[in-house]
Amino acid sequence: MKSRWVFFFFIFLGLGLILAGCASPQGNQQTGKDTSQKQLTFGMIIKEPSAPYIQAFINGAQEKAKELGVKVDIKDGQADSLKIMEIMDNYIQQKVDGFIMAGAVDLKAIVPGIKKLNEAGIPVIALDTSPEGGKVDLFISFDIQESSKRAAEAFIQGIKDRHGGKVPPGVVLEITGSLEDMFTQACSKGFHSVVDQYPQLKVAQGEGKWNNVDSNQKTTDLLTRYGKQVMGIYVHTPDIMGPGVVNAIESAGLNPKDYGICGICIGPEGLELLKQGKLLAAVEQPALDSAELAVQYLYDIKNGKPIPKIGETVVKEGAIWSPAKVVKNPWADEGAFMVLQGPLVPNEVKTDDPRLWENKLSNLWKK
User: Fold this and answer.
1) Measured between alpha carbons, how far is 298 from 278 in angstroms, rounded to an integer?
2) Other C-beta atoms within 10 Å of 329: how many?
3) Among 172, 149, 148, which Cα is nearest to 160's?
C-alpha cells in the first residue's frame, strides 16, 4: 500500500514538472513582452515659451501625450537657429522616437538639423511654420496666406463700412512680424493680394517683430507721420502685437474702432480686444488642436498606423479645424501639409465659442 502511494506520488510529481516546464516559457514570454515595451519619447522644440499660442502648443502636446501614455520632452529653442540645431543633435543622441518642430524664425538655417533627423530615421512633424528643406513627414497648420487674405477682405470691408460703402484715398498701416520669417512673408502676400486691388490706398509698413514693444513704437511713428490720412491698421498677428498697436492709438488720443484692426491669430489678448470692439476681426489659429494632432500622428507612425496623405481630406465632426485637406508641403523637400481650417472671429464663430483654444485654456490667462 505504501509502495503504491509512493509510485503515484512520483507520477504526479513528474507530471507537475512536465506541465510547469511546458507552461513556463509561455509565461516568461508574456511577462517579457509586457516589460519590454519602452515608453515612446517625442522631442519638441518651441520658438520661445512666453507667447500664449506657444503655451497652447505645449498644453496640447502634453495633454495628448498623457492620454496616449507617451512622453514629450519640450525644449526652448530661444528663437536661435544654432540653439535649435544643438537641441536636435541631443535628441538624435537620445534616440527619441519622433520630433515636433513647433516654430522657428529662420526656417532655412535649421534645415541641416532636419536632415540629420531624417538620416537617423526619426519622423518629423512641424507646427506653425515649416522648415524649408529636408523631409517633414507632416506639417500641420492653417493656411497663413489664405487666412491673411480673408482677414484683409474683412479689413477692406471695414473701411467701406466706415466710409459709406467706398474705399477713399488714404494710407493703411501694415504692422508686420519679423521680416525674415516665412510666416511674415505669407501674411504679407495674403494682405497685399486684397489691398493692392485698391490703388488709391498707400501701404505704410512697420516691422512689429512679433512683440508689443516694437509694434507699439512702429504704430506711434507711422500715426505721427501720416496722421489723418490713415484709413486703417492691419496687424499680421493681433495675438502678440495687437495690444501694442491699440495702446499706441489710444496714447495718441484716438479710437481703435476707427481703424478696423484685423489680422490672423487671436490669443487671449486679441480675444479681449475683439470683445471690447477694439479689434474688428481675426482668423483663429487652431494652435491647441495642431499640437494634439502632432502627438497623435507620431504615435500612429510608431505603431504602424497610417497618417494623413497627400490628396486626402481629414474630417472630424464638430472640430473647429475640420475639414482639413492634405496637400504637398510647398516648403520642405518632401512631405505633406495638413491644412487646418481657421474661422474668422466674430464673423463666422463668436468670441465665446468653447472650441476656441483661448476659451479652452482660459484658466491659464485668468489672474
Assistant:
1) 40
2) 22
3) 172
Q: Is 91 in contact with 122 (CB distance < 8 Å)?
A: yes
DSSP alpha helix (H) spans, the chain: 2-36, 52-68, 81-94, 111-119, 144-162, 182-195, 212-226, 238-251, 267-276, 287-302, 357-360, 362-365
Q: Which residues of the chain have pLDDT under 50?
A: 1-36
Q: Determine the Cα–Cα distance for residues 56 and 218; give it in Å rounded to an integer.
A: 28
pLDDT on residue 102: 96
Contacts of 244 (CB under 8 A, 6+ apart): 208, 211, 212, 213, 214, 215, 216, 219
Residue 8: what pLDDT? 38
**Side-by-side strand order, sheet with 344-345:** 201-207, 170-176, 230-235, 262-264, 281-283, 344-345
Identity (one letter) of the amino acid at 169? P
Q: How far apart are the first and last CA of the chain?
A: 87
Q: Which residues pair with 232 in a beta bridge?
A: 172
> For residue 22, with 0-12 CB atoms within 10 Å meaning exposed, 13-18 middle and 19 or more buried, which class applies?
exposed
Spatial distance between the Cα atoms of 165 and 356, rounded to a whole number of angstroms: 31
Per the structure block, which three cell numbers stand in for 166? Answer: 467706398
Instruction: Say if CB 356 and CB 284 are below 8 A apart.
Output: yes
Amino acid 50: pLDDT = 86
pLDDT at position 367 is 57
Say how far apart CA 248 and CA 242 lie, in whole Å.
10
Q: Which residue has the cell 537620445?
A: 94
- CA angle centred on 70, ends 66 and 75, rounded to 5°: 90
What is the 8-class DSSP label of residue 49? S
Query: For residue 262, what is its C-alpha cell?
Result: 484685423
pLDDT (tens digit, 9 = 90+) per residue, 189-224?
999 999 999 999 999 999 999 999 999 999 999 999
The sign of the torsion formed by the CA atoms of 268, 273, 277, 280 equals negative
